[in-house]
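2024-03-11 09:14:02 DEBUG pipeline.ingest accepted 1 chain
2024-03-11 09:14:02 DEBUG pipeline.ingest length=366
2024-03-11 09:14:03 DEBUG pipeline.predict start
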Amino acid sequence: MTAFALAARSFIVQLVAVAVGVVVSVTLLALVGTSPTDALEALLRGAFGTDFALTQTVLKAIPLALCGLAVAVPLLMRLWNIGAEGQFHAGAIGATFAALSAPEWPAAALLPAMIGAGMAAGALLALAAAVPRALWGVNEIITTLLLNYVAILAVAYLVIGPWRGAESFNFPVSDLFSPAAALPRLGSSQLHLGVFFPLIAAAILVFLLHRSPWGFEVRMIGASPGAARAAGMSTRKNVVVVMLVAGALAGVAGMVEVSMTFGRLQQGISPGYGYMAIVIAALAGGNVLGTLAAAILFGGFVVGGFALQTLGVPQAFVLMLQGIILFCALAGARLAGSRLTPWLPLRLRRGEAGEAALQKEEPSIP
């Protein structure tokens, strides 16, 4: 089967997975007394039905896409970056440090400094998980997950302690950023320059992954770690580089949120973008462009979830919807064949040499 046919089949399966997930979710709502038709209509209208709703969906899709890419890129090497949530918070801390340290700078200097500081902070947190993984084979799922709490609690400490604003009225928030720290808006709409960040990042990643020696090594290690080692490719080096890239991407998402959504650092800056990013990247099968499309879809779920509350449906329904869609995507990938989603564990894929191949793959050992 050609690469195009495989991609087309993957897209169809994932699209069906989303449809099945939505159908199952509204069916569950019907069982608790909510009209499935009204629920689905409210969800779609609240996410895409008006210019305001579509704008809000796009704004939510910005951090979701960046965090989704932060998970998708490591997946190409069969690494699970569960730490996008923490890297998002670290990026927000870095951007806030730049904004509070130089409030008098013009936007042309302050915004690049905030972006750079956000990327550096996110990458530094990812490095804390990448080094043990590369040197000693420490499971990155555990380290990235635990580092989430480090970054989230660091935000809490800063806004309660040293960065609490002088005019915060004892609320745990930092001072407001200067106007120069806000990304420029696009015309008179609420959309801002940050909408281009995921597109630029995706374009760069597509080029690097498919047109550079580094990208070839990443894809080769993900496809066959043993063959990559035999060819002299450094798994350890690429583990570190890939995780640094992932952390920087999630860090930019944190910078965008504190710059435009809040204009300051505070607790609760993320409704779980980093955790939703895991579902987004998994649904896209680690595909860069597919991650952007899935981010828009899940941005719609988040925004549409608020509309569902008018029907008495709790916001937690959106989390249930995400879980059902991921489950359907996994089931669809299993039924569709082995080469549909290379990020799946080997034991879930058909057409390979079973337990012997599983032992040779060694996905957790560099």
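2024-03-11 09:14:41 DEBUG pipeline.report Residues 153 and 235 are 32 Å apart (CA to CA).
2024-03-11 09:14:41 DEBUG pipeline.predict end
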